[in-house]
Amino acid sequence: MWQRRIVSRNQSTRILIERIQGGDEAAKNELYHRCFVPVLFLVRVNLGRKLRAKLESWDIAQEALLKSLRDLEQFRYETNDAFRRYLSRKVIEVIRDQADYWSAAKRDV
């Protein structure tokens, strides 16, 4: 029974991604809400102390998720693990962009 739920969850993620790639905004909203808490966790794990003092984890999670959904056209779903790695890469990209921004701002002062 537990295995069946996992398979069902994986299939539903695949279906949501396919619907999003077909232009379905409701699917995008559903996937956003499904992934927000795991993405927020990734942000909190990866956000360094200095950036955490300047930024809200919620804002970074939101930015990473929106970027992930926007760039989903190029994503090819193979497994749920591949999708999690895709989300992780987007979180790291957003954190690095913020680190670069704050480093540049510090130099400009």
Account of the 3D structure:
The protein has 109 residues and is an all-alpha fold. It has a single domain, classed as Orthogonal Bundle (Rna Polymerase Sigma Factor, Chain: A), CATH 1.10.1740. The protein has helices at 2-21, 25-46, 49-54, 57-70, 80-108. 18% of the residues are buried. Mean pLDDT is 89; it is low at 1-7.
Describe this structure in a few short sentences.
The chain has 109 residues and is mainly α. It is built from five helices and no strands.
Helical amount among residues, as a percent range? Answer: over 70%
CATH architecture call: Orthogonal Bundle
**Shape label:** elongated
Regarding CATH, which class?
Mainly Alpha
Biggest sheet character: none
- Estimate the mean pLDDT confidence: 89
Strand content: under 5%
Overall strand count: 0
Q: Alpha-carbon distance between the termini?
A: 59 Å
CATH topology: Rna Polymerase Sigma Factor, Chain: A
- The H/E string reads HHHHH
Structural class: mainly alpha
User: What is the count of structural domains?
Assistant: 1
Rg computed from alpha carbons, rounded to a whole number of angstroms: 16 Å
Number of H- or I-type helical stretches: 5
Uncertain spans, ≥5 residues at pLDDT below 50?
1-7
CATH superfamily: RNA polymerase sigma factor, region 2, helix turn helix motif
